[in-house]
Design brief:
Layout lengths: L11 H10 L14 H11 L15 H5 E6 L2 E6 L5
Antiparallel strand pairs: 1-2
Amino acid sequence: MAVPYYEAAGDEVALFEHAWKMRLPLLIKGPTGVGKTRFVAHMAARLGLPLFTVACHDDLTAADLVGRHLIGDGETRWCDGPLTR
């Protein structure tokens, strides 16, 4: 897997790696277009981890994230959302 290009602006790479090793949650925030998604893609590739993205919007529900039951062909089946895949 190729590592997406990311040029660090400070010590965010070391902080992310430390948080990952210590199993600590990490909040990454900032205005649109500053590279948050690129940074996460870079770190996921660097750590050899899969990356799943979710486009959030005003109408997003818990079922959109966790999953839902779907009815079709005379049966009900569970369809995982991105958080349970």
